[in-house]
Amino acid sequence: MKRIGVLTSGGDAPGMNAAIRAVVRKAIYHDMEVFGIYNGYQGLMEGKIEQLNVGSVGDIIQRGGTMLYSARSEEFKTDEGQNKGIEQLKKFGIEGLIVIGGDGSFQGAAKLTAKGFPCIGIPGTIDNDIAGTDYTIGFDTALNTIIEAVDKIRDTATSHERTYVIEVMGRDAGDLALWAGLANGAESVIIPEKHEPFENVVDRLKRGSERGKKHSIIILAEGVGNGFDYGKKIESATSFETRVTVLGHIQRGGRPTGADRVLASRLGGKAVDLLLEGQGGRMVGIQKNELVHHDIIEALKQKHSLDMSIYQLMSEISI
Ligand code: ATP
């Protein structure tokens, strides 16, 4: 394979730039040419494609977002859209494509592979909701952003003796909420994967208050529901002064952490290796600290599983 393409698609995630950089430089190291495709699959169909060199990916490893920009495209979900994309790839002489994104983006990569165009998926999303990898690029940075924000909220929660409900991202996955709950010493985490009876949450708040606790933090995953509704429920059940913070898009931005930069670089390098071996329709990931790869379609059929031992530990130590 002499010429490959790379694109980012779906929601952006910190560390995507580090992955692009690794893909470009590793491919050049192996004497391949690399083309950047801007604005995801939308840009692919429109031919927004440009050759990248070693310098094109300089000074980006430390930046959040994606230098290739991202987009969502309904048209690409259709046969015609995918054919348009393949036409563009052929026009530029591109023989293999690396797609950095979430599960929707992987669906697109699987479709192109089924049409005879080899693609490799790199999991990039803060949600950590992709099966076949223990971590996705961006999860660690988003987690650290939440931790820092909750530490700050805890200061004001203590000063005013308030209960805080903090809604965090994660789509249908509770990973960000659970990990932040443990790392921030929250009283309760409310996640889609485990039903926590409301009475337990209330009991824990009351017990904390009885032993003189000055603040309480509840972390709620967006996949469970609205933080404001949950806050109202708590206030009416306890009469504790309750405030709600929805952390929102600050969780998607910022400088990637060391863990994300290293993960992104390793996965980027691995994706190039697979294309060099003539593989397609694979996703790369990390499991038990080993680089792995799986059939994309098989991985999409699996559900990402949350490590429930962390939930158990949380319930044992948030007494
Ligand atoms: P995130 O999890 O961060 O939202 P994502 O990759 O899951 O990322 P989506 O919006 O679901 O984000 O998908 C990104 C793009 O991938 C879509 O806009 C579309 O162009 C393409 N895509 C999604 N599903 C399919 C599909 N079934 N077939 C072809 N292309 C698809």
UniProtKB/TrEMBL annotation:
ATP binds at residues 11, 72-73, 102-105. Its cofactor is Mg(2+). The active site is at residue 127. It comes from the Bacteria. It catalyses: beta-D-fructose 6-phosphate + ATP = beta-D-fructose 1,6-bisphosphate + ADP + H(+). The keyword Magnesium applies. GO terms for cellular component: 6-phosphofructokinase complex. It holds the Pfam family PFK. One of its GO terms (biological process) is canonical glycolysis. Mg(2+) binds at residue 103. Keywords: Allosteric enzyme, ATP-binding, Cytoplasm, Glycolysis, Kinase, Magnesium, Metal-binding, Nucleotide-binding, Transferase. It is found in: Cytoplasm. Pathway: Carbohydrate degradation; glycolysis; D-glyceraldehyde 3-phosphate and glycerone phosphate from D-glucose: step 3/4. Its EC number is 2.7.1.11. Allosterically activated by ADP and other diphosphonucleosides, and allosterically inhibited by phosphoenolpyruvate. Substrate binds at residues 125-127, 162, 169-171, 222, 243, 249-252. GO terms for molecular function: 6-phosphofructokinase activity; AMP binding; ATP binding; fructose-6-phosphate binding; identical protein binding; metal ion binding; monosaccharide binding. The keyword Phosphoprotein does not apply. Residues 3-275 form the Phosphofructokinase domain. ADP binds at residues 21-25, 154, 185-187, 211, 213-215. Signal peptide: none annotated. Belongs to the phosphofructokinase type A (PFKA) family. ATP-dependent PFK group I subfamily. Prokaryotic clade 'B1' sub-subfamily. Catalyzes the phosphorylation of D-fructose 6-phosphate to fructose 1,6-bisphosphate by ATP, the first committing step of glycolysis. Homotetramer. This is ATP-dependent 6-phosphofructokinase. It comes from Halolactibacillus halophilus. The lineage of its organism: Bacteria, Bacillati, Bacillota, Bacilli, Bacillales. The gene is pfkA.
